[in-house]
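Hey L., structure's done. Input below.
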Amino acid sequence: MEQPNLDYILKLSGTNELVKSKLINTMKFELPLEIDAYYLSIRLNKTTQAAACVHKLKNKIGILGLEEGYHIAEEYENHLKNREKKLQLEFENILNLMQIFVNSL
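Output:
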């Protein structure tokens, strides 16, 4: 399974430590909020709202270098729009992996 990384953040920030720090801090602040919003939508069975949450989370998935995860999220988002929860477990495993990684930063 692929692992999250900071390669994209490092590429964006270059040698600027302030930019790198701001990007990481933004990720640390926003990720848990977006994950919580996703889980709330799922609990309330609001699949359209959950799809919107997945759409936002796709950006974070990409930023953390999870290419396969991005494709899974994209498919899952489309399933949710059709009121299907196919790939839910796979997507939630990606969220867990990301949260663990971000918490370790």
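The mean pLDDT is 97. The chain is about 80% helix and 0% strand.

-- N.
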